Amino acid sequence: MVMGILNVTPDSFSDGGRFLDAAHAVDRALEMVAEGAEFIDIGGESTRPGAAPVDEAEELRRVLPVVRALADRSAAVISVDTRKAGVARAALDAGASLINDVEASRSDPGLWRAVAAAGAGYVLMHMQGRPETMQAAPAYGDVVDEVGGFFRERLTRLQDAGVRPGQVLLDPGIGFGKGLDHNLALIRGLKMLSGLGRPMLLGVSRKSFIGRLFGAEPHQRLGASLACAVWAAGSGGGAVFRVHDVAATVQALRMREILDNHPNPDAKNHTP
Questions:
Q1: By the number of CB atoms within 10 A of the CB, which of 2, 34, 81, 254 ranks highest?
Q2: CA-to-CA dists, residue 190 to 39, 129, 203, 252, angstroms
Q3: Is pTM beyond 0.85 here?
């Protein structure tokens, strides 16, 4: 499945400022649904490396009008990308049904209790550090093993807060406190992480590690973003793909399904 990214921020790394106007944002969300997105992920605070925090009132001002309008006009799953319990509660009341939490390493379980009370979905993401500092010097022994251990510990804590495992998707947090080799290892290790019994969400769209590999600006990273999605789907490790380029990603994933499911021709009818 595909989750379309809708940043209602002035400073997100790829499309910051394009959808600050609520009507424009809703139009873009409906466009992504028409292109095949089953989820729309609305973010009112940038979590790019080095991003400054946004206060709760400003985040609510950016997010809630879009959530309300989209809930009235679409049956797509509305996700809100937030670290704040107050924003999560207000968004769920306004029509969202999934909270995408980049700061699942939290010590305060208030956001988890809000998710539990609403019976909402929850994206449990791994991040080393905080957006302001996470790329300073990320370090791991075995990144796949450490992220897997983080997921197991947090799933237990979520249950203690009232969030059932069936409500949870796991996101390894590509680019969130990881270097290039860590990101590649996590993509290769998705199937291992999916052994924890929960669907995996993968967000690699236009990420900076692609830029480092190919010397590409964000708008030039579509090819590698699609390759990661198709590879992850084929490996059995990816279930939901969080992307900017919905139409291209849907087409690439459907083509992979067609090739996988098309009957093989009789070899004897095809001689060299």
A1: 81
A2: 21, 21, 12, 19
A3: yes
